[in-house]
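For homework, think about our next protein:
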Amino acid sequence: MFTVRIQREDFDAGAEAAALARGRTDVGAVVSFAGLCRADPAEEGGRLLALTLEHYPGMAEEEIERHLAQARARWPLAGATIIHRHGRITPGENIVLVVTASAHRAAAFAAAEFLMDWLKTSAPFWKREEREAGPHRWIEAKAADDDAAERWQSTGSDTP
């Protein structure tokens, strides 16, 4: 089972991971990563109150499906679930979930990391910070995130 969902509603990471493996005897490893909105320390504009995530409906799902197909071509996956939320999200709430299942842990770990690196740097989502003292601002990609994603291109292997 391979699933991509973009939704406003929250999700239950444990339930999603369990559903991916339920009834499967070919799965030896399930790896999950849940990304949460964190209350960054106060910086210019004060404490983070919320993130607003916007996306281009249809295009975002298509791009995520395309990268999931790349992961499936690189690693022997038995299943994967990718959920990305949109809308206003406050600190402590879920933003993104990547769950991968495979017969072996190495493939499940590598595929999950590959997918999360891509989601962090290149998925068609836009984030705007809302801070207590303002001003609200759009978040730009970080060089460290770009470096993490680049390693999948430069290594020529299936491990970072």
Observations:
- The chain has a mean pLDDT of 88.
- DSSP finds four helices and eight strands in the chain.
